[in-house]
Amino acid sequence: AENNHDAAEEGDNQLLSALPKKEGMWKPFFLYRGCWLTPRSVTSITLLQSQFAPRPDDVVLATFPKCGTTWLKALAFAVANRSRHPAGSGAHPLLTTHPQDLVPFLELPHRDVHPVAALDGLPSPRLLSTHMPAPLLPLSISALGCRVVYLCREPKDVFVSSWHYMNKVTADFSLDMDATFELFCEGFSLYGPLWDHVRGYWEQSVAEPDRVLFLKYDDMMADAGKHVKMLADFLRVPFTDEEVSGGAVEEVVAMCSFENLKSLPVNSSGVSDRIGGMPMENSSYFRAGKVGDWKTHLTEEMAKKLDCIVEEKLRGSGLTF
Ligand code: A3P
């Protein structure tokens, strides 16, 4: 039993021993098919690849960590379920459930036997989420035509957000910002490199725009209403003229705003373990919620460095930040 427990804690040792390993985060990470992961993520993802049964009407919300996953989950849930739960109603699930818990992650929580049974038990159409890069998604997802909503964010803001988050949630470990920045620039971060993650989904969205919707956090912040409508069209539940004139779009935007969600007791208090063995405060998903917060944390030189790397890595893709 002891050994089983260790295997579950540390991942599949046979697979892991064949993978490149790197120190520098709160635990060693492994490079699995071009993506830096914790040992348990590698195990979880490989189990998922063999066990997950997608359905053609599944919609997967895909993000690199700290790009606005929580917001996208709230928005997509609110849009998809508004006939049952009108936005702004006094009994809306978002008032009593953390957005992270309204849309389950494919690869989380980590288990030694992946809980695909829980996913199998969900009624269709399912809203699911993932941090996996496009090449790690089970192949059957694209083969079946499952739709994907990808949300990305300005890379410097992603770095700043993830640095704060890691320091908050990895209790006994304090990551130095400069050192972590250097690692990030080398592509070494959880689910990194960031640019490969973004580029992978970007290229899918160019090739299959009806299947993969590509969104940017900064654009959503600038005009949330427009994006809520796009999301509704993509989810095949477009807003009716009546809804639009009745303010239903604005209701969704207001209910899912940073200020509103952050202030709700279900999001501002308490601790939950969504990863497995890593309890964290519910409030850690809500920090500043700003575009350009990097300006108060990074030097000009750091900003230029990351800009240059991202520009070079995305060159020829048609995607810029
Ligand atoms: P900051 O750390 O820059 O504030 P994720 O949900 O992928 O973990 O991303 C977290 C980031 O999204 C955090 O960014 C968080 O504050 C921000 N965020 C959370 N909810 C939001 C919302 N409703 N609207 C806008 N940003 C939100």
Automatic annotation (TrEMBL):
One Gene Ontology molecular-function label: sulfotransferase activity
Entry's Gene Ontology cellular component terms: cytoplasm
GO biological process: sulfation
UniProt entry tagged with the keyword Transferase: yes
EC number of this enzyme: 2.8.2.-
InterPro entries per the UniProt record, alphabetical: P-loop_NTPase, Sulfotransferase_dom
Ranges where the Sulfotransferase domain occurs: 56-318
Keyword Transferase included in the entry's annotation: yes
Keywords: Transferase
Family: Belongs to the sulfotransferase 1 family.
Protein known as: Sulfotransferase
Organism: Hordeum vulgare subsp. vulgare (Domesticated barley)
Source organism phylogeny: Eukaryota, Viridiplantae, Streptophyta, Embryophyta, Tracheophyta
Gene symbol of the encoding locus: LOC123410129
